[in-house]
Design goal:
849 residues; 16-stranded antiparallel barrel; signal; 15 helices
C-alpha cells in the first residue's frame, strides 16, 4: 500500500490553471494561452519533471468563442462530469444529439487525498500536467478515419462568462474547452463497455467487432495512447448487423504523451506507461497496463496471423502525408514548436510497431480466457499431435449443432494456460485426440447441467475440470481428467480478466533504538497471480536487516502460497540471524544479572551467536480465523573465541551443562491459531487480534533436549472520542515444559517491555501486559510535509518465572512519545521507555502492536 500511495503522488498527470492572457478579442474569437505557468517553471521543477510540452502550453492561440445558445442551434446543459483529471459540461441539442465540453487544463485527481491539498506534492502534481499535449486530440480524426475507426471531431473553443451557464457559471466560465460529440455523430444510441459485456455473456447471437478493436489497439501503440481501458470506449450497433457492436474510442488525453525529468525517469522503471513518447516502447505489456483486462476479454480470438495482418493494414494506411495533414489541424504556432518531433517519433513507431505489437500478442496469448454465454453451447477441444490445441464453440439448437461462434488454434509455443468457461446454459465439453499437450486446458462448467465427453485415449495430463459437486452434471472418470469438484460456488465462478501482473516491489526502511543503533532494511516483495488463487497465487518476501552498531545481519524469507494442498495455503518462514549476529543474554530468571561494576557496560551482555529457524506450515482460513500446522527446524551455533570478555563466557563457566558453545540442531512440530477482527492492520482503531503458537522440539545432536511450549497474545483496540483517541492493550502469556535451551524459553524485554533491553528476563513461564493510549492531536501542513500528529503513552508490566527461583518482582515500565503519519502513507513512531535500569529510545515504522 505504501508503494502504491507514493506512486500516486508522482503519476497523477495533472494541471489546473485557468486559461490565461487575453491578447486580442474579436467578435467571434479570442487569443488565449492554455497555461503560461508551465513554461515559467524553474530549474528545480524542470529537473524533477522535465521540459515535455511546456512551450506548447505557453503558445498563444486564436480560438472561437463558444455561445451555448447559438452553437448547434442552441444547447442545453444536461449535467457535469469528467474523469479523474478533467471537468466536463454535458450538453444536448434540439435533435437529442449529445455533446460535451471537456476542459483543456487538468485538475488534480478527483480521488486525490485531501491531505495533499496546498502541499509541495499537489504543486508537483499540478506541474506534471505539462507532460500531456493539450491539442493532441485534434490530430486523431483523419488518422482514425483512414483506419475505418469511429471517432469524435473535436475543436478547441473558449467559453466566456456566458449567462446560459446558470448555476455552473463559477465553475465553467472563462476557460478553454475541447468541444466534441459525446457519442456517434448520427445520434445513434451507444452503450458502455460493461453493458456490452453483459449482452455478450447473456446471448451468443451478440458479438463485438473484435477486428476493429485490435486495429484500434495497434493505433494506440503508434500514438502513445496508453490509457485505453474499458471506460474509454462506447459501442454502437453496426450498420450491417443489429447483433454486432462496433467500438467507439473516446477521450484521447494521452496521445503523444511524453515525460522527462528525474522523477519520471526513475518511476518509469516501475511504471513503464510513464516513459516518454519515443520510437521505443519498453515493456509494452506494462506500458499498456491499464488496458490489459480489456484486451484479454475482447482480443482472445486472434492468433499471430491475425495480428500481423492488422499491423500491416495499419502501417499501410497511416502514411506520412496523412500524418502531416493531421498534425496541421493543430494551431499553427503549436504545430511549429511540437509537430516536427512528434512526426519523427510517429514514423519510427509506425515502422517498428510490428516488434512491439507482437510482443504484446505473445503476452496476451500466454493465458487465455474464453467464455460461452447463458445459452447452450458445445465446446470442442482437439489436442493435436504437435501439441497445439484447437477450440471450437458451436451454438446448440433444438435440432442439433448451430453455427460456429468461436474458433482458434492455440500454439503451444505461445499459450501456457487455456480456460474455457461455460457460464449458464446446458453445455457440452468434448475433448478429442489421444495426444498430450504442454498447454494446460481448464474446462469450467456453468450453473446448469453440463456434460463432459473425453476421449478414452486421452491422457489427463494438463487437463482439468471444474464444477459443482452438489449439482447434477455428467462427469467423466477421474482417470480422464483432473476433477476439481466443490460445493463452493467459486469453483465455477467467472471473473472477467483483470490487470494483474506478477510484480516485484522493492523495500527500503530505516530504524533506530538505543539498544541496536541505526538499522537498515533492504529487500523486495514478489507477488504472483494464477488461476482461482485469490487475492494472489503467492506472496514472497525477502529482506536483509543490517545493524551498524552491532555489524550484524538478519536475513528473512517468507512465502504465502495459496491453495497448494487440499485447499490449504502453504506458509514458509525462514530467518537467519547471522553471520555475526549479536543478541542480548543476561542469564536466566526474573531478576537476571545486569552488573555494571568493574567497568562492565551493556555491551558486556551482547553475545555473538548465530541462530536460524525454518517454519513450514499448511494453513486454512475460516472467516476471521487462520489455523496452521507443520514442522519447524532450529539451528544454533556460538564460538567461545567470538565471545571473549562477554557474559557468555562467564555463564558457560557457571553452567557448563548448558553447552552454550556447542552447535545444536532441533526439529519438531508447530501449530498456530490467529483470530483477527481489526479494521486496519497498521492503524487499528477497533477490533481484536488473538495469536497462539504451540511448539514441540527435540534435539537431533544433543540428547535429553525435548520441550513443548505455548505462547499466546491477545490484543484489543477501543476507539474513544470519534477514534481520535484509541486505547490499545496487549496481554501475553506462555510457558515451556521439558528441557529447552535459553533461546527457546520465554523472554521479556524490548518491545514486550519498553525500557528494558530485549531478552532482559528469561524463564519457563511468562505473563505481561502492554497498555497504550494513542491520541491524534491535529493535522498540519508545512508545504513540504502534510501529516497527522499524535502522542502515545504506555505502561508495561510483566514478569517471568524460572524453576527453582524465588522472586516476587513484577517489572513495571512507562513512557511515551509522538507519532506522525506523513501523507497518510505510513506511520512513524518515536518513544522513550523508562525502567529502573534506564531510559531507552525507540524509533519505528508503525505501532508495536
Amino acid at each position: 500500500m505504501r508503494c502504491k500511495q507514493l506512486l500516486s503522488i508522482v503519476f497523477l498527470l495533472t494541471a489546473a490553471f485557468p486559461a490565461f492572457a487575453q491578447k486580442q478579442v474579436e467578435a467571434d474569437s479570442i487569443t488565449v494561452i492554455a497555461n503560461a505557468k508551465f513554461d515559467k517553471a524553474g530549474l528545480f521543477k524542470r529537473a524533477l519533471l522535465g521540459t515535455s510540452y511546456r512551450k506548447v502550453w505557453a503558445q498563444p492561440i486564436k480560438v472561437p468563442i463558444f455561445h451555448l445558445n447559438k452553437e448547434k442551434g442552441g444547447l442545453k446543459i444536461t449535467g457535469t462530469g469528467g474523469g479523474n483529471q478533467t471537468t466536463s459540461l454535458q450538453l444536448e441539442d434540439s435533435l437529442g444529439h449529445e455533446w460535451v465540453l471537456r476542459s483543456v487544463n487538468k485538475t488534480t485527481s478527483r480521488d486525490q487525498p485531501q491531505i495533499y491539498k496546498n502541499t509541495m506534492v499537489e504543486d508537483l502534481m499540478l506541474d506534471a500536467g505539462s507532460i500531456g499535449h493539450p491539442y493532441s486530440a485534434l490530430a486523431v480524426p483523419p488518422l482514425a478515419e483512414a483506419l475505418g475507426l469511429q471517432h469524435t471531431n473535436p475543436i478547441i473553443v473558449y467559453l466566456g462568462d456566458d449567462p446560459a451557464l446558470g448555476k455552473y457559471r463559477d465553475e465553467f466560465a472563462n476557460h478553454m474547452y475541447l468541444f466534441e460529440e459525446r457519442g456517434p455523430a448520427d445520434g445513434s444510441k451507444d452503450i458502455k463497455t460493461e453493458t456490452l459485456q453483459d449482452k455478450l455473456e447473456q446471448d451468443n447471437d451478440k458479438k463485438a467487432d473484435a477486428r476493429l478493436i485490435l486495429r484500434a489497439r495497434i493505433f494506440d501503440f503508434i500514438m502513445g495512447d496508453w490509457d485505453r481501458h474499458g471506460g474509454q470506449w462506447k459501442w454502437t450497433k453496426s450498420d450491417s448487423s443489429k447483433n454486432t457492436y462496433e467500438p467507439f474510442p473516446k477521450d484521447r488525453d494521452k496521445v503523444f504523451y511524453t515525460t522527462g525529468g528525474a522523477i519520471f525517469d526513475v518511476m518509469s522503471i516501475a511504471k513503464p506507461n510513464l516513459q516518454a513518447y519515443t520510437d521505443h516502447i519498453r515493456r509494452v505489456d506494462l506500458w499498456n497496463y491499464n488496458t490489459v483486462g480489456f484486451d484479454l476479454y475482447f482480443l482472445n480470438q486472434f492468433d499471430q496471423k491475425d495480428w500481423e495482418a492488422e499491423i500491416t493494414y495499419v502501417q499501410s494506411h497511416l502514411t506520412d502525408e496523412l500524418m502531416e495533414r493531421a498534425l496541421k489541424l493543430m494551431p499553427p504556432n503549436v504545430y511549429a514548436v511540437s509537430a516536427p518531433a512528434i512526426f519523427k517519433t510517429f514514423k519510427r513507431r509506425r515502422d517498428h510497431i510490428r516488434k512491439y505489437a507482437m510482443r504484446y500478442y505473445r503476452f496476451l496469448a500466454q493465458r487465455v480466457d474464453v467464455t460461452g454465454s447463458d445459452k447452450n453451447e458445445r465446446f470442442t477441444i482437439i489436442r493435436q499431435p504437435d501439441g497445439d490445441v484447437q477450440l471450437t464453440i458451436n451454438k446448440v439448437k433444438k435440432d442439433g449443432l448451430g453455427k460456429v461462434i468461436y474458433q482458434r488454434t492455440f500454439k503451444h509455443k505461445d499459450t501456457k494456460d487455456l480456460r474455457v468457461y461455460g457460464l449458464e446454459g446446458k453445455n457440452t465439453f468434448e475433448v478429442i485426440g489421444g495426444n498430450t499437450s504442454p498447454i494446460t486446458v481448464r474446462m469450467i462448467g456453468g450453473h446448469e447441467e453440463d456434460t463432459y465427453l473425453i476421449d478414452s485415449a486421452q491422457s489427463r495430463k494438463n487437463l482439468y475440470l471444474y464444477d459443482r459437486s452438489d449439482q447434477q452434471n455428467n462427469l467423466p472418470t477421474a482417470s480422464a481428467a483432473h476433477l476439481k469438484l466443490k460445493k463452493d460456488t467459486t469453483v465455477n465462478q467467472y471473473i472477467r480478466p483483470e490487470n494483474k501482473y506478477n510484480t516485484v516491489t522493492p523495500i527500503v526502511s530505516l530504524g533506530y533504538s538505543t539498544e541496536d543503533g541505526l538499522q537498515f532494511v533492504g529487500g523486495a516483495n514478489y507477488v504472483r497471480y494464477s488461476f482461482q488463487k485469490q487475492p494472489y497465487s503467492s506472496l514472497q518476501h525477502l529482506s536483509v536487516n543490517y545493524t551498524f552498531q552491532k555489524q550484524s545481519f538478519i536475513v528473512n524469507y517468507s512465502g504465502i502460497f495459496k491453495k497448494r494442498l487440499w485447499d490449504n495455503d502453504l506458509l514458509v518462514n525462514i530467518t537467519e540471524r547471522g553471520p555475526r549476529n549479536t543478541n542480548n543474554f543476561f542469564g536466566l530468571g526474573n531478576v537476571g544479572e545486569f552488573d555494571k561494576a568493574g567497568g562492565k557496560e551493556f555491551y558486556y551482555y551482547r553475545n555473538r551467536y548465530d541462530f536460524a529457524v525454518a517454519d513450514i506450515r499448511l494453513a486454512h482460513h475460516y472467516n476471521h480465523w487462520q489455523l496452521s500446522g507443520g514442522s519447524v527446524t532450529q539451528f544454533y551455533t556460538a564460538s567461545e573465541d567470538h565471545n571473549n570478555d562477554h557474559f557468555f563466557n562467564k555463564y558457560n563457566q557457571l553452567h557448563p551443562e548448558e553447552q552454550v558453545f556447542k552447535a545444536k540442531l532441533y526439529t519438531g512440530i508447530i501449530g498456530g491459531a490467529v483470530y483477527d477482527t481489526r479494521n486496519n492492520t497498521t492503524f487499528a482503531s477497533h477490533g481484536v487480534v488473538w495469536r497462539t503458537t504451540v511448539t514441540g522440539l527435540t534435539g537431533l545432536n544433543i540428547s535429553g533436549h525435548t520441550s513443548g511450549s505455548m505462547l499466546s497474545t491477545f490484543s484489543f483496540f477501543v476507539p474513544l472520542m470519534d477514534s481520535t483517541i484509541v486505547f490499545a492493550n496487549r496481554t501475553g502469556a506462555g510457558a515451556i515444559a521439558g528441557k529447552g535451551d535459553f533461546f527457546q524459553m520465554m523472554n521479556l524485554g524490548g518491545l514486550t517491555m519498553r525500557g528494558y533491553h530485549t531478552s532482559r528476563f528469561i524463564g519457563n513461564t511468562i505473563l505481561y501486559n502492554n497498555m497504550e493510549l494513542r491520541a491524534k492531536l491535529f493535522d498540519f501542513n508545512a508545504y513540504v510535509l502534510a501529516s497527522s500528529f499524535g502522542v502515545v503513552g504506555f505502561n508495561d508490566t510483566g514478569r517471568v518465572w524460572l524453576k527453582g527461583e524465588k522472586s516476587d518482582t513484577v517489572h513495571d515500565t512507562y513512557g511515551g512519545g509522538i507519532f506522525l503519519t506523513p501523507y497518510n502513507a505510513f506511520l512513524f513512531e518515536a518513544v522513550l521507555g523508562k525502567s529502573p535500569e534506564g531510559t531507552l529510545v525507540y524509533l519505528t515504522a508503525g505501532f508495536r502492536f
